[in-house]
Amino acid sequence: MSQDELAYALITPYSLLKSRTGGIIARLLANANADFVGARMFIFSDAFVDAYQEVVCPAGTDPAICEAWHKYVDQALRTDNPWGRVPRCLLLLFRGPNAVRHVKEDVIGAFTEQPTGDTIRGTYGDFIRDESGRIHYFEPAVLTCPDPQLNHEHLRLFADYADSDGGLLIGRCSYDDPNVQVSLVMLKPDNFERRSRRPGNIIDTFSLTGLRIVAAKLFRMTVAMGEQFYGPLQEIFADKLRGQVAATVRRELGDAFDFPFTAEDADKVADMLAERNAACEFKKIVEYMTGLHPDSVPPEQKAAAGNAKCLALLYEGPDAIEKIRTVLGSTDPAKAQPGTVRSDFGRDLMRNGAHASDSPENAKRERGIVGLLDGEERPCDIARLINDTLGR
User: Fold this and answer.
1) What is the pLDDT of residues 23-50, one digit of tens each?
2) What does the pLDDT look like over 64-83, one tens digit per residue?
3) 337 in any annotated domain
4) Pick from 83, 87, 142, 107: which is nearest to 32 by CA?
5) Is residue 196 part of a domain?
6) What is the distance between the alpha carbons of residues 125 and 10, in angstroms, rounded to a whole number?
7) At which of 269, 300, 331 does a domain end?
8) Residue 244 sits in which domain range?
9) How many domains does the chain have?
10) Is 152 among the residues known to form the active site?
């Protein structure tokens, strides 16, 4: 059996700028024969660019392509680039047998001048030669490494620069509107139960806001995190679900007695059960988000990673909270406007595609819980993952 490899895909600044992010992620997650295990935003320092340039091309690469690669990295990834763009990149990590080959050959693809849409580069990249054979336009859409041994050198660089050049990119982009906000979006666990395009398609829907992704983190929510994150809902559930409890009580008990069981009777029983029902629904959400029922986890183990995978993203821009909530749609997918995330990808009130902060205050609170607030843990999860894989 082949040993697991750790492969990477780095979505380029131009792909992010043009909001091709969701489409690229959809293809990677659906078609790469490997597990999605990590995500982090980067802006390369000059030192990182210099080091990456030295190892970007495997031995034997066509000299013309190698020249184009070096020129591209030297321009597109530097903060001092010819176009004045903020060169945000999104790193995605995949693990599995022969992951490097699968990600590169089967999904990202090679450079081609022929019109084709069967790979990421065929769809989103550009590779144009002039009549003399010289490459005069080159946009790879995604950066990766085709060689497993050289791939180790690439991964070492991402681990070494993960803390200094990666993580929270808040405040790095400029906007004309002064009302700049940061919103947390969290893609829920059912999006990752099996390989599919759903996570990428949801991100593509959020691109309709015109906001910019400034942080990304793939993680497994702990029971402690779940209880803290959704804690405010327990009190809300007691009032919000009281009517449902009353309707259930009347439906089940309406004909159970030889005397009339009225709506007023049902309301009184609902008052008695509201808190217990709220606690039950709260535990269901924590179990869904973590893969662990909170009552089955001893207190000393509540800080351990759960079994369910979530992807947290930070979106930045003018009126970010309202724009994200509009595209997200109503909590109930059946009531959400067509074309919204929850209308297209939600299944029920709990499995409704994604969570998004409903206020700047809650965005800050939630970011702190999932580890996307200033002062995040160092070394970061990506550095630990790479170093553990490489035995560093």
Assistant:
1) 999 999 999 999 999 999 999 999 999 9
2) 889 889 999 999 999 999 99
3) no
4) 107
5) no
6) 13
7) 300
8) 224-300
9) 2
10) no
